[in-house]
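I would love for you to help me understand the pair of lines that follows before we discuss the fold together.
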Amino acid sequence: VPVPFLIDLGVMNDQGKIVHARYDKFRQINRFLEFIEDILPRLSREREVTILDFGCGKSYLTFIVYYYLHEKKGLPIRMTGLDLKADVIAKCNVAAKKYGYEDLKFEVGDINGYQSDMPIDMVISLHACDTATDFALFNAISWDAKVILSVPCCQHELCGQLESETLPLVQRYGIVKERTAALFTDAIRGNLIEACGYKVQLLEFVDLSHTPKNILIRATKAPVADAHKKKMLEEVRQMCDCFGFDPMLRKLLRGAGHISE
């Protein structure tokens, strides 16, 4: 089925066939929609669903999420893409108008300064670099978002902090240290989000052969027992003590009173 913005982006031709050179991008798009499909029951059909995409860039996935939820699933949604690049945002707004997507807007800005007159139902953060992901997660939790979808990128913070007397091997080789710290970063994030009242999954976004940034954090608001929250935080504390970590998301959540240790 021809999709106008995918044609303009060069992902498919006028007949709806996928351009061979862009097939990886098409697979990425479809994989992301699978994650969206799974959480549809969490989204209300009784009122407008508000979605925020932080660091939207050229907005391949922003457009496809709007198209899928509004055009294909019939959900009443209002979606906003945020990015710091004014020229990219201007082009995205022109494109949204061209396709008649009246409730899809793009703004120049940072997630920390964003305000909405409606509850935020879903926060999307794809490939926000290093601690920018932590700020996106923190704001989503603070807004009590029902759904959080985040694909982290460039997890440098803990790599610079990693020190362990009991496990020196993980820091001896640079590439091992970098990859270990990246995995630890997302594991800590998962526990911290769960401690704030979410069911959390860390899932493979796309195959490693397509991109090394292939972990997606999917969190849905859910009842979480106090004992389980304490367990999640204790596991984080143990890891931080073992490796000398002081992760940004932990500091943000603790400072705002979302967690207490």
User: Anything to note?
Assistant: The CA atoms of residues 122 and 147 lie 5 Å apart. The mean pLDDT is 91. The first helix runs from residue 4 to 8. The two ends are 52 Å apart (CA to CA).
